[in-house]
Structures are given as structure tokens and as C-alpha cells.
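Re: the request from the purification team.
They wanted to know what the chain is likely to look like in 3D before they choose a buffer screen. I agreed to run a prediction and write the result into the notebook, where they can find it.
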Amino acid sequence: MVIFKRQNLMEPFGSGTEFQLIFCRNVMIYFARETRQALIDNFYNCLKVGGHLVMGHAESLNGMKHRFRYVQPNVYQK
């Protein structure tokens, strides 16, 4: 079952929200480093354990402080 919804990335995702998969492709390249860091933290906090974050090819978590496990280029796991 898939649920699609609109989300302002600059606002909290809501208490108790847990996703299995987040696609954030070619979005973070437009944000300042501090904003990207806040977004990465927010993604981590709202993913279920074992959930995945998929990013665009122009994006990376290299050089960022994060708790994700690298799976393959542009794919990370909580």
C-alpha cells in the first residue's frame, strides 16, 4: 500500500510519522548546507528502522553528519 502526500520539507513531518522509503531526488542541491543537515536529520527521524533514503545522483551525504548506513550510490538505510 502506498500513500502519496504533499509535504513542506522545511516543516516537521509530524509526531509518529514513520516511512519505509523516502525519495528525495535532486532537491537538496538547492539548499544551503545547514538546511540540508536539518533535512537529513528529519529524514532519519521519520524513517522506520531498516527504511531507505534514495537521493539523486547529484546529491550525497559525503561530508555531512548522519547516522545512515551506506547501501550503494545514493541509497542509504536507517
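For the purification team: The two ends are 21 Å apart (CA to CA).
Please add any questions underneath this entry.
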